[in-house]
Amino acid sequence: MFYNYQLTFELNRMVDIHENDFKFTILRNALESIGDDKKRQLIYVIVNVLNNICKTIYDICNDFNKKQKKLMVDNFFEQYLKYLQRYSFFIGDIVSIFKDTYRENLQCKIFNHWSSMVEKKSCTVQEKNFLEVFDDIHENCISKYEGIFIKRLGDLKNLYRAQKGKHFGNYERMIPKEEYVKNKNRWNPEGVAFLYLGLDEEVKQYDEVVNFIEKTCFEELRLKKDEYVSICKFKPVEGNDKIINLCYEDISYDEIDSISEEFMNTIIKVKVNEILTNKKYQEEIRISEKEEVKEEVIKKIIEKEMNEKQIRPIIRKETEIYLGNLIMKSIDEAVFLPVDIKEDPELKAYVPFHYLANYLISKGYSGILYRSTRMNKIGLKGKNLVLFNKEDATYILNSMNVYYYDGRKYEKVLKDI
Fold this sequence. Notes:
Number of helices: 15
Structural class: alpha+beta
Largest sheet: 5 strands, mixed
Helix content: 40-55%
Radius of gyration: 28 Å
């Protein structure tokens, strides 16, 4: 008879055997999340066998150095996934379950680091705080591949800004001024005037009166029933200003995976084709009589090609971009949550955003592209842009519209009454 605790014990044993390596910890969480008793019993059998084999090998190879042990752990992890996936028909797609659990774990860690900044809590000696972690990502990935992670202000289209009230022709009222900044906002503390804009690549209609960008601006203002609102278009003043992209809601984790996998597969196909059509290599392989010799020759050819054609740097670059996208999307999903002043009257949730804004200003950024949590709250998508210098963009004359909101729909107001 199988008892559920047996799997729990075996999964804990798996993590212990592999010295609490984070991949095995996440694999344990992923397998523990499977609730079906028959599946759990089969998982127990597979993991028990693998644990016993790995434990024996570790005992034999107990004089390995740290680097060798790390290679062993990585190799063993691949074997666990391989054998579990072999029985996916019976126990489910373990690779997908692992990936989902990995992402949840990553988001949880990000949120914990992020939240620790609210009360200025310090992390443990072993752990870095959020800004230190983000700085590592920035220096090793974002700043290296600006074309992927950074946009230029001049390339951003369809910028809009809204203000409550009827401001017919009063475009100066659309520029934020310190005297109006009485409360802190997501990115700025009180008394600091950042420029907040709505935007999107395309202008699509929300209803017969307003478009989605206008709707985003109205939601960010928390527009209420029977209120008037004025909105106009903006344009960049300097086009080369750096804008960091923290808005990843238009791309899924699966799409990030598939883009990376497609690139890797293309590289492999190209290199294999080059090797197969190279007459010199063909001859080297042909004269190898024994299969094991042929295998060794092929390995040496691949190693030679990887070194001479600089394949490793290409793969390393693609891996860094993949991990960067994965982490940035996880940050996006972990920290951009709606903030309700009723639940958080002191708006403490904004504190980490202020720290991150200061960090990005110190790195020479002019603004941040981020998701609209207010639109998310009503089941829609929207994009926002905050500019640290309010003079980096300006209004477009003759672009202002004024609307009246009845609590359900919008009505264009043609003149002041």
